[in-house]
Amino acid sequence: MSDDDDYDAADSGAADCTPIEAGSVKMGKFLMIKGRPCKVVDVSKAKVGKHGAAKCHFVGVDIFTQKKLEAICPASAQLAEPIVDRTEYQLMDISDDDYVTMMDKDNNMREDLKMPEDDALCKKIREALDGGEDVLLTVLKAVGSEMIIDTKQGAK
């Protein structure tokens, strides 16, 4: 193959993804780039040339690590679009080892997520909990990974 080796085909075994043709990817959509779920921030398409198919160039930001990733592939290639789910939970407690106890809208409890690595977000969550406020946590889930990405004050 040529320089197109770094794109991820839809049959890469990612069960939490749906296939999408590279030529139909738009900015703001989610796309698997180098095995990571990314939000597409830039798309450019090169026209069909003398020696082959049209090419697509994608720049995406990893939704969990915020790292910028790039991919180039033919416009007809089948890529993987991750299924991204946002869920809000009410914060109940934070354990000594930084595991978060949360409750969803159906009153189901979870204790399997750790505090986020973002120090500013951790501080905001702890201050809100210590202040006795109702705290809602936004959890992002994609391709088998989950992470707390935001917090806001709950309704009283």
Automatic annotation (TrEMBL):
Alphabetized Pfam families for the sequence: eIF-5a, IF5A-like_N
GO terms (BP aspect): positive regulation of translational elongation; positive regulation of translational termination
Keyword Protein biosynthesis assigned: yes
PTM comment, free text: eIF-5A seems to be the only eukaryotic protein to have a hypusine residue which is a post-translational modification of a lysine by the addition of a butylamino group.
Keywords linked to the UniProt accession: Hypusine, Protein biosynthesis
Transmembrane segments: none
Gene Ontology MF annotations: ribosome binding; RNA binding; translation elongation factor activity
Domain called Translation initiation factor 5A C-terminal: residue spans: 83-152
InterPro entries: IF5A-like, IF5A-like_N, IF5A_C, NA-bd_OB-fold, Rib_uL2_dom2, Translation_prot_SH3-like_sf
Keyword Protein biosynthesis: yes
NCBIfam families for this protein: eIF_5A
UniProt record similarity statement: Belongs to the eIF-5A family.
Entry function: Translation factor that promotes translation elongation and termination, particularly upon ribosome stalling at specific amino acid sequence contexts. Binds between the exit (E) and peptidyl (P) site of the ribosome and promotes rescue of stalled ribosome: specifically required for efficient translation of polyproline-containing peptides as well as other motifs that stall the ribosome. Acts as ribosome quality control (RQC) cofactor by joining the RQC complex to facilitate peptidyl transfer during CAT tailing step.
Protein name according to UniProt: Eukaryotic translation initiation factor 5A
Organism field: Hemiselmis andersenii (Cryptophyte alga)
